[in-house]
């Protein structure tokens, strides 16, 4: 079972690190389908997020695609709310209900990115309302902390629709957003002594996503075009989300 999970986690990290994502929604969907304990799911997904996007943040910053002023503005409200969301005591039924909704929404956003979003080198940007995007980031951060999803899958389409920045900069912003919110989520769990880490289980998964994430972060979108993999992942996430809601 661990070998199968490692292969799946490696593939997810490889695909989404290139776009600035950590893959938290996919990790949670896979672990949920495998019937893993909900607290172990949440801790493992957040740890994998950090492991993947830490390298991505460095890559985007070094290549000049991480505008720090915008990154800090988006994270100013989201980080404390991600901590608060993770600290909130949730029953297993409530967690899976929220996760089911979050995964279903994530699948919808992924489908938008796959089929409707255009990736153009020359883009007309709008002078965005920084306060509005900060509030949106805060709401996503709260959901991130409660469910263990980094939040980039929600933030990126909002920024792209609002023409907040270029496609590559949005990827960098999403990567930074996932990193700080995932760390805040882990701190919230630590504050209530709820981090569940099993080295024999999570260790191989972390190694798999680190390797996959490092490879993905070094591949440009022109080299790696895994649309079919992303489409299959969207279907997986949608299936897991709907299954939780039905149950």
Task: Describe, in plain words, how this protein is organized in 3D.
Its main location: membrane. It is a multi-pass membrane protein. Keywords: Cell membrane, Membrane, Transmembrane, Transmembrane helix. InterPro entries: TM_pro_TauE-like, TSUP/Inactive_protease-like. The protein has ten helices and no strands. With about 250 residues, it is mostly helical. Helix 1 packs parallel to helix 9 and helix 2 packs antiparallel against helix 3. The longest helix has 25 residues. It is globular and about 45 Å long.
The number of strands is: 0
CA(first)-CA(last) distance: 24 Å
- Average pLDDT for all residues: 81
In total, how many domains does the architecture comprise?
1
- Main pleated-sheet profile: none
Tell me the helix content: over 70%
Question: Per DSSP, what share of the residues sits in E-state strands of 2 or more residues?
Answer: under 5%
- Going by helix content, strand content and strand pairing, the class is mainly alpha
Low-confidence stretches: none
Work out the helix count.
Answer: 10
Which overall shape is indicated by the principal axes computed on the Cα atoms? globular
What is Rg? 16 Å
Q: SSE order in H/E notation?
A: HHHHHHHHHH
Protein name: Probable membrane transporter protein
Pfam family, one: TauE
Organism: Chitinophaga oryzae
Keywords: Cell membrane, Membrane, Transmembrane, Transmembrane helix
């Amino acid at each position: 079972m661990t070998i199968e999970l490692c292969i799946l986690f490696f593939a997810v990290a490889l695909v989404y690190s290139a776009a600035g994502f950590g893959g938290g929604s996919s990790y949670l969907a896979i672990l949920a389908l495998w019937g893993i304990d909900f607290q172990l799911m949440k801790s493992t997904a957040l740890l994998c997020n950090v492991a993947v996007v830490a390298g991505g943040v460095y890559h985007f910053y070094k290549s000049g695609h991480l505008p720090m002023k915008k990154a800090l503005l988006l994270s100013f409200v989201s980080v404390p709310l991600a901590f608060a969301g993770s600290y909130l005591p949730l029953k297993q039924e409530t967690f899976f209900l929220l996760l089911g909704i979050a995964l279903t929404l994530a699948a919808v956003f992924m489908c938008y990115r796959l089929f409707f979003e255009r990736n153009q080198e020359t883009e007309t940007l709008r002078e965005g309302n920084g306060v509005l995007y900060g509030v949106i980031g805060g709401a996503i951060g709260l959901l991130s902390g409660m469910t263990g999803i980094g939040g980039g899958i929600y933030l990126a389409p909002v920024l792209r629709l609002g023409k907040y920045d270029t496609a590559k900069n949005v990827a960098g912003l999403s990567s930074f957003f996932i990193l700080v919110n995932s760390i805040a989520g882990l701190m919230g769990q630590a504050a209530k002594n709820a981090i569940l880490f099993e080295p024999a289980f999570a260790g191989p998964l972390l190694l798999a996503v680190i390797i996959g994430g490092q490879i993905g972060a070094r591949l440009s979108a022109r080299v790696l075009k895994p649309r079919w993999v992303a489409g299959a992942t969207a279907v997986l996430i949608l299936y897991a989300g709907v299954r939780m809601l039905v149950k």
